[in-house]
Structures are given as C-alpha cells and as structure tokens.
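MOLECULE: protein
FOLLOWS: sequence and fold
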Amino acid sequence: MNAETPSAARPCAGGVQVVFLGNSITLHGRAPALGWTNLCGMAASEPDKDYVHLVVRGIEKRTGRKADVRVRNLAGFERGFKSYELAHEADLVAFAPDYLVIAIGENVGNLNEDERKAF
C-alpha cells in the first residue's frame, strides 16, 4: 500500500486501483509527541486495523483482484479550501482509480462565519 509519496507507488498489473482521500482518520504521519508512532489512519490500534486497510481487504475479496492503492491526507484542503491547489493531486487523477473513497470534513472551520458562508 502506498501511503507516503506518489513516487513510492508500485503498480499492480491487473489489479483494482483505489484512491483514499481524507484527513488524519485516513492517514496520519508519525507524531511521537502525541503518542502516535504509526503511519496509518489515526485511532487504529495498529496499521492493519485502520479503515483504509479494512476497506482495501473488502475490495480485494469482492473483486478477486489485488488492490493498487494511493492514500493522501487532505487536511490542508479542509483547513484552507479557498486557496488549496488541487493541482497537487494531479497524479491521483492520472492514476484513474476504479474506486475513490473520501472522508473529510472534521477539520473545516466554523461555517457560521459570514466569510466562510460566502464561498
């Protein structure tokens, strides 16, 4: 599973292509100061138990094909959606996934502010 960089991706011939976009529940880097030493979705007791890994196993079982997976943390988009450059995710568009799983929203600021409502 490719969780760190697009260049680390390993194509899977004949596989099903899956992209996960989300915040820390999808992917969070190691943060020892927080007591978090894994590189996976937060709140999982171990990497194989985060929702990304569970969904991938389900897709592989259902399709009978190995999954080629890309995982990206988009918390920056949640916090700054007005100025976020989606061009940073162009490699994911080029990847042309069969499945796109998105889990965002928890890091969005107060939408009751008039300035945020105007967007």
In short: The mean pLDDT is 82. The longest helix spans residues 51-63. DSSP finds four helices and three strands in the chain.
